[in-house]
Design goal:
Elements lengths: L17 H28 L5 E2 L4 E2 L4 E2 L4 E2 L4 E2 L4 E2 L4 E2 L4 E2 L3 E3 L4 E2 L4 E2 L5 E5 L4 E2 L4 E4 L12 E5 L4 E2 L4 E3 L8 E3 L4 E2 L4 E2 L4 E2 L4 E2 L4 E2 L4 E2 L4 E2 L4 E2 L4 E2 L4 E2 L4 E2 L7 E4 L4 E5 L1 H6 L4 H15 L9 H10 L8 H11 L16
Parallel strand pairs: 1-4, 2-5, 3-6, 4-7, 5-8, 6-9, 7-10, 8-11, 9-12, 10-13, 11-14, 12-15, 13-16, 14-17, 15-18, 16-19, 17-20, 18-21, 19-22, 20-23, 21-24, 22-25, 23-26, 24-27, 25-28, 26-29, 28-30
Antiparallel strand pairs: 30-31
GO biological process, one term: lipid A biosynthetic process
Protein name: UDP N-acetylglucosamine O-acyltransferase C-terminal domain-containing protein
Organism: Oryza meyeriana var. granulata
C-alpha cells in the first residue's frame, strides 16, 4: 500500500500556452458563426406559409401546396390539388378532380374543372384569365352523362379572359394543349382538340371539336375552324377566316371558306428559317399551286413530280409535301382550295 502513495494521477486539464488558447478561441468563434449561418439558411429554406382568406371555402380534403394564396370568395373542391406558389384571386373556383401545377395564377371569376367524372390537369406557370372556363363538360350531344372526360394542359400558357376550353367527349379521348401558347380573350377550344406548342390565337378564335393544331401557328381575330380540320405548323389564318379544310404547313389562308394565299413568309422569317429554305419552299409552292396557264398536269401529277425532284425533297419541303399528302388520307377533309386550280 505504501507504493500507492508515491503514484500521482495526471492532471485532468493541462494548461495551454497562450498562442494555443488563442487559436482554440478563434476556432470556437468560427464554428459559432457557421452554426448561426446554418440556422439562418435553414430558416430561409423553410417553405412559406399559405394564405387562405377567411371568406374562401376550401374543402378539408383538398390538397393545397406551400406558399399558396387563396383570395376571398374562392372555392376549392374536395378532389382539387393546388400546387406550390399558386395564386387564386378573389372569386375564382377549382372544382372536381382538378390538378393545378406550381406557380399558376387564376384570376377573378375563372372556373377550373367540374364536378363530373374525369380529370383536368393543368401544368406549371399557367395564367388563367378573368372569367375563363377551363375543363368543363363539352357541348357535344354525343357525350353521355356519367362518362369520364379529360383535359390536359402543359406549361407556360396564357389563357386570357372569357376563354372556354372543354374536356373530351369520350373517355378514350382527351383534349390536349401543349406548352407556351397564347390564347387571347374569348377564344374557344372545343372537345377533343389537340393543340401543340408556341401557338398564338387572337381574340375570338373558335376551334370546333377534334381540330388538330400543330406548332408555331398564328390566327388573326374572329377565325372559325370547322371540326376535324388540321392546321399545320408555321401557318397563318387571316382575320375573319372560315376554315373548312386543312391548312398545310407553312401556308397562309384567308377568306370566308378560306383559300390558300401563299406561304407565311413573315412567320417563316420570325421563326428562323434561312433564305435558302424559304426559296426552296417558294419554288415548291409555285410548282404545285401556281402552274403555268398552258400546263395540263393535274394537281396529283404536280405533287408527284415534286416528290421525285431530289433537290426539292429536303427538309422543310418534304414536311410540306407530307402535310399535303396526309390531308387527303382517310377521314381527312382535304386542303383549302386555291383559285388557280380551276383555270
Amino acid at each position: 500500500m505504501a507504493g500507492w502513495s508515491t503514484l500521482r494521477s495526471p492532471p485532468l486539464h493541462k494548461p495551454l500556452p497562450m498562442a494555443a488558447a488563442t487559436r482554440a478561441i478563434r476556432r470556437l468563434l468560427v464554428a459559432s458563426r457557421h452554426l448561426h449561418a446554418s440556422a439562418s439558411e435553414g430558416a430561409a429554406r423553410e417553405a412559406p406559409r399559405s394564405f387562405i382568406h377567411p371568406a374562401a371555402v376550401v374543402h378539408p380534403d383538398a390538397v393545397v401546396g406551400q406558399g399558396v394564396s387563396i383570395g376571398p370568395f374562392c372555392t376549392v373542391g374536395a378532389s382539387a390539388r393546388i400546387g406550390d406558389a399558386c395564386q387564386l384571386h378573389a372569386g375564382s373556383h377549382v372544382m372536381g378532380d382538378t390538378e393545378l401545377g406550381e406557380r399558376c395564377v387564376v384570376f377573378s371569376g375563372a372556373i377550373l374543372g367540374a364536378d363530373i367524372p374525369g380529370q383536368t390537369i393543368i401544368g406549371e406557370n399557367n395564367v388563367i384569365g378573368h372569367h375563363a372556363v377551363v375543363g368543363v363538360k363539352c357541348q357535344d350531344l354525343k357525350y353521355k352523362s356519367g362518362d369520364e372526360c379529360f383535359l390536359q394542359i402543359g406549361n407556360n400558357n396564357e389563357i386570357r379572359e372569357y376563354c372556354s376550353i372543354h374536356r373530351s367527349s369520350k373517355s378514350c379521348d382527351c383534349t390536349v394543349i401543349g406548352d407556351n401558347n397564347l390564347i387571347m380573350g374569348s377564344c374557344h377550344i372545343a372537345h377533343d382538340c389537340r393543340i401543340g406548342n408556341n401557338n398564338i390565337f387572337a381574340n375570338n378564335t373558335l376551334f370546333a371539336g377534334h381540330v388538330a393544331v400543330e406548332d408555331c401557328t398564328h390566327t388573326a381575330g374572329a377565325v372559325v375552324v370547322h371540326q376535324f380540320c388540321h392546321i399545320g405548323s408555321f401557318s397563318f389564318l387571316g382575320g375573319g377566316s372560315v376554315v373548312a379544310q386543312d391548312v398545310p404547313r407553312y401556308m397562309m389562308v384567308a377568306g370566308d371558306r378560306a383559300e390558300l394565299r401563299g406561304l407565311n413568309l413573315e412567320g417563316l422569317r420570325r421563326n428562323g428559317f434561312s433564305d435558302q429554305e424559304v426559296r426552296k419552299l417558294r419554288k415548291a409552292y409555285q410548282k404545285v399551286f401556281m402552274p403555268t396557264i398552258d400546263s395540263h398536269c393535274s394537281f396529283e401529277d404536280r405533287l408527284t413530280e415534286l416528290e421525285r425532284e431530289i433537290e426539292l425533297s429536303e427538309t422543310p419541303v418534304s414536311y410540306m409535301v407530307e402535310s399535303i399528302r396526309m390531308s387527303f388520307g382517310e377521314g381527312r377533309r382535304g386542303i383549302c382550295k386555291f383559285r388557280s386550280w380551276n383555270r
